[in-house]
Amino acid sequence: MRRAAVWGLGAMGSSIARLAAERRVAEITAALDVSPSKVGRTLDQVAGPPCPRVPVDHADQAPESLRKAGVELVFLATSSYLRDVAPQILTALESGSSVVTIAEEMIYPWAADPALADRIHRVAVKVGRGVLGIGVNPGYVMDLLPLVFSGPCRRVDKVKVFRCNDLSPYGPAVLRSQGVGLDPEEFED
């Protein structure tokens, strides 16, 4: 079983940690966050059972934490944006880990910033590790899933996808990205 770290223990990262532990897809040997309320506690205390009792280190300690825990795979759940996750991805790669991230812009990072996407690609190739962007939207629910469902169709004239989600479990970053608290002009921008 691959040794993994969960980096970012908000609602999504904590859910990923619980699911990975429950399904035994990886052995979680490290956890990282920036919140003072989480750092210094253990993953099972922060994310809940069945997470293992591994310490939650500050994200500034990522290179040492990942190496010390023998991490081969990082589940990255810190931001939706390439510019925010790129330094974290590069740190994980340079520490010898592959990365799976929920950052939506990592579905196709060249659309957000071609130079930064090329840099991540070059580092991944150099260290022989992979990076996978697997956001729910865009990505799976509103892009891939409709495409797959249209596969058996001879002709598709229109695809319409609606999204309705409960944002109550999420923190300020997700709320901002969804426009909560913005006036209409700010939302349109």
Description:
The structure is a single chain. The chain is of the alpha/beta class and 189 residues long. The chain is built from eight helices and six strands; from the N terminus they run βαβαβαβαβαβααα. Helix 4 runs parallel beside helix 5.
Short description:
The chain is an alpha/beta fold and 189 residues long. It is built from 8 helices and 6 strands, in the order βαβαβαβαβαβααα. The radius of gyration is 18 Å and the shape is globular.
The ordered H/E elements are: EHEHEHEHEHEHHH
Number of DSSP-assigned strands: 6
- Overall pLDDT, averaged? 92
Ranges where pLDDT stays below 50 over 5 or more residues in a row are none
Shape: globular
Strand percentage lies at 5-15%
> How are the strands ordered across the major sheet?
3-2-1-4-5-6
How much is the radius of gyration in Å? 18 Å
Quaternary class: single chain
Main beta-sheet strand count, sense and barrel state: 6 strands, parallel
Please estimate the helix content: 40-55%
Annotation keywords:
about 190 residues; alpha/beta; six-stranded parallel beta sheet; 8 helices; 6 strands; globular
Helices and strands in order:
Elements: E1 3-7, H1 11-23, E2 27-33, H2 43-47, E3 56-58, H3 62-68, E4 73-76, H4 82-94, E5 98-101, H5 114-127, E6 131-133, H6 136-150, H7 172-177, H8 184-188
Parallel strand pairs: 1-2, 1-4, 2-3, 4-5, 5-6
Helix pairs in contact: 4-5
